[in-house]
Amino acid sequence: MFIYNVKINGSKLFKIIFISMVIIIILIIGVVIYKIFGGATSSEDTLSCLPKNKVNVIEDNNYSNVLKAVHENINDYIGTKIKFSGYVYRVSDLKENQFILARDMIISSDFQSVIIGFLCECDNAKNFEDNTWVEITGEIIKGNYHGDMPIVKVTKINKTDKPNDEYVYPPDESYIPTAGLV
User: Fold this and answer.
1) Where are the beta strands (DSSP E) in 7-147?
2) How far is residue 89's CA from residue 135's CA, in Å, rounded to a whole number?
3) Which end of the chain is more exposed for a tag (fewer CB within 10 A), N or C?
4) pLDDT in tens, 61-70
5) Do residues 131 and 88 make contact, with C-beta atoms less than 8 angstroms apart?
6) CA pair distance 18, 12, nearest whole angstrom
7) pLDDT in tens, 85-109
8) Quick check: 70 and 150 in contact, CB under 8 A?
9) Phi, psi of 24 (to 5 degrees)
């Protein structure tokens, strides 16, 4: 009869645990590097914000994320259909058929805000006064307003009530830049 006695001294046990931990750390770092460099730049992930196959409703909670993603990479969103609400806002150098469908974005803890929004083109834009709340459906096209700019070509526009929370908030930690790595 054979009896095999395994004796592990402290230094061998330490070496085994140390090597195991190093392997686990290398695997974790590998996964993180893949997610950063491979995941964020693939075309599937860049367009996950607004798929092109349907009318995409932009909600208050993702408004600034979508706005930022579309502005950063206009070409990926051309032809995308969107639906969202805001108020009509005009600046002096817009054309007669243009307005900004705006929202106020909170930028500080004391509720200071800035106006953000999509530039829209609509045949009957002059029928809607400034500060009128509307809901639009339209398609993103590439236009020019002080440089390349996404423009929403409005296909449907209706007056709507002012929402309970009229503010939107800055892009959150779930925002993934689509134009490259930060």
Assistant:
1) 55-57, 81-89, 98-106, 113-121, 133-144
2) 13
3) N
4) 888 888 888 9
5) yes
6) 10
7) 999 999 989 999 999 999 998 887 7
8) yes
9) -65, -45
Only one residue has tokens 């509307």, namely 134
> Length of the chain in residues, anyone?
182
- Residue 92 in tokens: 């002096």
Q: Are strands 113-121 and 98-106 parallel, antiparallel or unpaired?
A: antiparallel
Rounded to 5 degrees, what angle do the CA atoms 164, 166, 171 make? 125
Task: Please tell me whether residue 43 adopts helix, strand or coil conformation.
Answer: helix
For the entire predicted model, the pTM comes to: 0.65
Task: State pLDDT tens for residues 11-69.
Answer: 777 788 888 999 999 999 988 888 777 655 444 444 455 555 678 888 888 888 888 88
The Cα 128–Cα 158 span in angstroms is 10
